[in-house]
Amino acid sequence: MFKIGLDLGYGYVKGVNEAGKEVLFPSLVCEGHDRRLSELFGGASGSLRDNIHLVVSDGDSREIFVGDLAKQEGGLISFTLNENKTTHPSTKDLLTAAGFLLFPDTYTPVHLVTGLPLNQYLRGKDEFKHMLSKINVSVRHKNEQISKRINFAHTTIFPQAAGAVYHAIWDERSKYFIKGSYLGLIDIGFKTTDFITFLVEDKLTLINNLSGTINTGISVVQSAISKKFTDKVGSNLDVPALMRLIENGRIWFDGSEISFVKEIEAAKQDVAKHIQNNLKSVWGENIRYFHTVFLAGGGAAMLGHAFSGMHANVVTVKNPQFANAKGFLKVAEAEGRRAATS
Description:
Blueprint: E1 2-8, E2 12-17, E3 22-26, E4 29-31, H1 36-40, E5 52-57, E6 61-66, H2 68-73, H3 89-102, E7 110-116, H4 118-133, E8 137-141, E9 147-150, E10 154-159, H5 162-169, H6 173-176, E11 182-188, E12 193-200, E13 204-206, E14 212-214, H7 218-233, H8 239-248, E15 250-253, E16 256-259, H9 261-283, E17 290-296, H10 298-303, E18 314-316, H11 323-341
Parallel strand pairs: 1-7, 7-10, 11-17, 17-18
Antiparallel strand pairs: 1-2, 2-3, 4-6, 5-6, 5-8, 8-9, 11-12, 12-13, 12-14, 15-16
Helix pairs in contact: 5-11, 7-9
């Protein structure tokens, strides 16, 4: 079976397949429409990832914009912060788009490994797995001669953060397998921050009471800066403009450039402090037995500098935004090897 690791985040979808292809796009979906005027000015040029204009057939036929194209063309759009991914209609569209980009060109059975935040995983993994098993749609790109059938022959649901741990230590297991020590990982996402703790023995043992989910992530920075902008200029920002402002630190508005560099840094520090305070209340004195605290997720690059003082050995994993997706792919590969030898 063709293997895919997919991290269906609230802010971004991250995926990688066994052929080494990676995809990353904002978790934004809106209804598609005709883009002939945009195409006159090169709006349909670039990679498929930048122009995810899909025609989806799942009984009815409909057009959708996904990712950066939804951000550019979608008007009043917003990130989906609904906690239950299983029941939200955007979830299937994001899965379909990721599948379209990651599936092989010719039909092959696919093993998908994906995840849920720890608190959702404990109570909702079976419902999520059932929903994935029901996906069976035909999808084609509006401007390219490419069509695919999206369904999953086999699915595995894994806790987020646990997937990132696999990615963090896989190639250096001897370095981190110090018996009697703990490994912690903080996965800073868009809506939530997962943290997970393993005791290192002959294998990694998950410590439930030192693992969990904090309902804080990068979206809090967005909300804070959106409010700061409104307070300063008396106008609201749409999602695309807000994303650009946080990325650049500045925005052109009413004939001049306005800097929000200090406000953005203050918001980042507030979020990092909130996460650390929650972790201190859970990890407590146990952190003194940790060998390493890993940072992963899209928020690791943005907030990582604020975590350096919480432990003697804080390590941002390589390519932190893809840590779960790459870890999930390793899970798929391990399951494939076990199936081959059984």
